[in-house]
Write a structure and sequence with these properties.
single chain; about 575 residues; Immunoglobulin-like; 8 helices; about 10% helix; globular
């Protein structure tokens, strides 16, 4: 079947590999980007235009989980790279993997046909977006990528996988040549107390991350709507920049959400914006006001150094009725927010529970479908600038007798405090305790099961993180869609517990879900998506599943005999 290669990428991010011939396939590009001037380097810290590459990882289309070891592609012959950070995908860093410098030999691949220009520079100029789109809609290019990553072309383009792309910079830092992606540059800058930003601000935090970003949100990463030039903050780089995604679908255009957030009803959430402009310090503070549902919430003392930015957020509870809300945001004190309007879709998941199972239900053609994989993020981090005064005393006038005096001509310095949050969870199911013939985790079809989900959220800033608040379970007899159960939170706080709501069709009003009488012998595996632990950088969530065994059916427990004569 004819394929369309949908691109969710930006600016300088495509490449051609080992096939020099051009065999064009139908496709469409979703490409944009930015950059700016890079200033001058020094003998110890510099970048030569063209010293660049791209990291390619095959990931699952649903979860974004990497399924191949990343490969680094470059046009350059590299023999002087002293260290890198291994072959790690941005997704792995987003999920909590630590940055680990590596002094081993740097591995890379030179493609048979040269990559297009990836990172803008004043000397080499910018790349042709049309040429980049042409490269990545070329069937032979996709075939060569499949070969390099160890996959068949059909498997790669069948819709189950996506390509995750990251631009790579080869740069001299403190006299040593280093290979790093935009995400690795931001993480290394945080670890070293800002040393990368001090000497390589433009190339590492402007041209590199802005060479690739998403136009359409995907795999938990947002579309970039911020400036196309200017030095970006570490937080912006980690959460939104330095990445591109290629998805392979049949001829169906991707759905594009018009909402910035999707929340559940009656849920405590966090909504955030990025603030920048000038410098905000205790002498010239910036405040941000959110207008939500008829009330105003102001965040005061949003501090950041000149040329950088800061996240500002509010913690609030969504309404009890489904609706689309418009949140307006404004800043005062010399700063501005990169979004002035936020749309939030408030949904109610407690509206489609399974119907009453019947004793004569049948489904002779049933076959179990694939278990879904919803977006998952189990750890995240964010940062807050903390200003402190650097005194600088200057003597004015003559001697003390002549009226001289000391005056503090100091200035505000900033430290960056990094905070973290992580989510762990477990799911267990078991036959209902009222089941008379269950044995361990084995039951007959037609009887009920019970479920318990436990969720633990740990954080270094509890005021900025909510507990996990919702969990919804889907069942194999409905193809993991059509009907579901919103679980009830029976234990609150950062160590929460969730169970089935009481079943209106249960004789004993049990927290149970009845398996269908027709379900075949074998494994029975519900799936649960745990969600709504909100942080300044988005929602923590987790995919869970558990299994019991079906053997026989409820009718086997019935015995019919003639009535004894009186």
């Amino acid at each position: 079947m004819k394929q369309i290669f949908h691109l969710a990428l930006v600016f300088l991010m495509m490449f051609v590999l080992a096939f020099p011939m051009n065999v064009l396939a139908n496709g469409e590009g979703n490409i944009d980007g930015g950059g700016g001037g890079m200033g001058q380097g020094t003998s110890q810290n510099s970048w030569t235009p063209g010293m660049e590459g791209v990291r390619v990882t095959v990931v699952e289309a649903g979860s974004g989980t990497p399924v191949t070891t990343p490969i680094d592609l470059t046009n350059k012959r590299l023999s002087n790279i002293s260290y890198s950070f291994g072959k790690v995908c941005k997704i792995s860093y987003s999920k909590g993997k630590s940055l680990m410098p590596s002094t081993g030999a740097y591995g890379y691949v030179n493609p048979g046909q040269s990559l297009p220009r990836l990172i803008s520079s004043q000397s080499l100029g910018t790349a042709s977006i049309e040429a980049i789109k042409s490269y990545f809609t070329d069937e032979q290019v996709i075939r060569s990528i499949a070969g390099l990553t160890g996959m068949s072309f059909d498997a790669l383009t069948g819709g189950r996988y996506k390509l995750f792309l990251e631009p790579i910079l080869y740069v001299k830092f403190q006299g040593t040549f280093v290979a790093m992606t935009a995400t690795e540059a931001a993480l290394y800058d945080e670890i070293t107390g800002g040393s990368v930003r001090r000497v390589l601000p433009s190339i590492a935090f402007q041209n590199l991350p802005l060479s690739m970003f998403l136009e359409t949100a995907d795999l938990g990463y947002p579309a970039w709507s911020g400036p196309r030039a200017g030095v970006r903050s570490n937080q912006e780089v980690k959460t939104s920049l330095g990445l591109g995604i290629v998805r392979f679908l049949e001829e169906v255009p991707p759905e594009v959400s018009v909402y910035d957030y999707e929340y559940r009803v009656n849920t405590e959430v966090i909504t955030s914006v990025t603030v920048r402009g000038g410098q905000s310090d205790p002498d010239h503070p910036v405040s941000v006001t959110f207008h939500v549902g008829g009330r105003s919430m102001t965040v005061r003392g949003v501090y950041y150094p000149e040329g950088d930015s800061q996240l500002a957020w509010i913690r609030w509870v969504t309404p009890s009725n489904p609706q689309v809300m418009t949140i307006t945001v404004s800043a005062s004190g010399g700063g501005y927010t990169e979004k002035s309007t936020i749309t939030a879709n408030i949904v109610d998941l407690n509206r489609n529970p399974p119907p009453d199972p019947q004793a004569d239900d049948r489904n002779d053609g049933f076959s179990e479908g694939p278990m879904p994989v919803y977006p998952e993020q189990t750890s995240t981090s964010w940062s807050i600038w903390r200003p402190w005064w650097q005194p600088y005393w200057v003597w004015h006038g003559g001697s003390e007798e002549e009226g001289g005096y000391w005056c503090d001509h100091g200035w505000w310095e900033f430290d960056l405090d990094v905070y973290h949050a992580s989510l762990t969870a477990a799911m267990g199911i078991a036959p209902d305790e009222k089941n008379p013939t269950a044995s361990g985790s084995t039951l007959k079809s037609g009887y009920g099961i019970q479920e318990i989900v436990t969720a633990n959220v740990s954080t270094s800033q509890s005021s900025a993180v909510t507990p996990a608040q919702n969990a919804v379970t889907y069942f194999p007899e409905f193809g993991y869609q059509r009907f579901w159960r919103l679980l009830e939170r029976t234990g609150s706080g950062y160590s929460a517990r969730f169970e089935f709501q009481k079943n209106e069709y249960s004789t004993y009003n049990r927290r149970t879900h009845f398996t269908p009488i027709w379900y075949p012998d074998g494994s029975y595996a519900p799936y649960t998506w745990l969600m709504d632990s909100w942080t300044p950088t988005g929602m923590l969530s987790k995919n869970l599943s558990a299994r019991v065994s079906i053997r026989g059916n409820l009718w086997m427990d019935w015995h019919i005999a003639p009535q004894k004569p009186s």
